[in-house]
Amino acid sequence: MAIFARAEDVYAAIGALFEWGSQDGELGPKIGESGLTIRFVYHRPDAEITVDAKAVPPEGRHFTVHCGPSDLKADVTMEMDSDIAHTFWFGKMNLMTALARGQMKAVGPIQSILKLLPAIKPAYRKYPEIARSLGLPGGEA
Amino acid sequence: MEFTEFRVTTRVVAGWDLAASLDVELSQAGLERGLVVTDPGVRPLAERLLSASHRLIGLHDAITPNSEVGQVERLAERARDAGAGFLLAVGGGSVIDTAKAAAIVLTEGGRLLDHQGVNVLARPLFPVAAVPTTAGTGSEVTCYAVIRDGDAAAKVIFTSEWLPPVLAILDPALTLGLPPALTASTGMDALTHAVEAYLSNRAGPFSDALALAALETIYRHLPPAVRDGSDREARWHLLISSCQAGMAISWAMLGCAHALAHACGGLRQVPHGVANAILLPHCLAYNRPAVEARWWTLADVMGADPVKGVAALARRIGLPERLREVGVAESDLGPLAEAAILDGSIFTNPREATVEELAQILRAAY
Q: Does domain A7-130 bear CATH number 3.90.550.10?
């Protein structure tokens, strides 16, 4: 059974993680300084989250998060099943292995995403908290 | 181990003077109207193949070492204009990678860099057949194509399950005339593939078997091939084992030696095999704490301490031992480390490296 039933469930979990990251003092500045627009396209259920580190963010945030379709031009697009994203943010999936196994698709200069990998480590601690608060299962790989 | 996978999608045929009966293999693969892709150094051989074949229609020899995006796009345009049905890459890694990258443009259209990414390509590509004339990259079977982006002074790696050529023709007769220096550098590239595939954090039982077989063979046969280019036994084994190492890296991928070598090639155009030969001993020493069990297998296969064994081999076959000897400046070391940390090969290195650690490796190799 899928972890998420509707796009709104994806936004409540993964969208909330990005919203948290945009205000986090450790993760936020590193993504904010990248100057990238990164789109995450999810399937089963279909959902879309765009992280915009190009535009000036709202007060108190390091970047802007758009949940839902966006017209912004992305530098890099990451595409995967919503369940895969859930497992990834639990810290239970290696990005390179997921790419090699075809579980994720990366469109654009992948180096710019790889550069951010060390910066997102705090999110692996935060996401299980968010998932637990929503009653979601534990991100089995 | 929770998961492993392996695939080789290329039909590989190997034999002495096989290139002379090229049409038999092309016919069996259903390949017609091929454009031969090569470099000026290999052109005489490519011309011989062209004149002996009824399945080839022309020749494009404008490929250089560390080939660039523009060369790929010009090749695609030439193939399109000629109405080619496939590309026959005759040459070393740059030639084969250029043909593979051109197949992306020929299939998907647009500019090459539009197709950057992983798993971006979703369908079979314009067919490529490969006739390697060096025993090094294994590009004739790998799912990678490495192309230099001159504007960014960096190498861009294209990865896809659709990138391996449909056919690889291994004819060791074509490598008999390879000069000693090129034999040495390409051989060290293949040896580095074998070592890094075996130590990769994605290594699996299938890639292990191929990597160790290739390592043992290259380690034994590279010096005689450099010493006497007409040594048929050494040439045969090197061509087969470089292909095996290519198969191994297609799944297991690589490590920090390749990440750093790609950076050196991108910034200073250091020949890839030479960069690997210089860097591998230092990368092995760095990785040792993370690979203790596998270290002893390497030592057993090589019959020597791996660091000392690789360094001694490189010295014995006459390759440079220091980055300063190959055009790298001391002021490049920081930017090289910054570039290498973003290279895809770094993520399968057995030890998670930092920029500072990569800079230390570079300083040790400088």
A: no
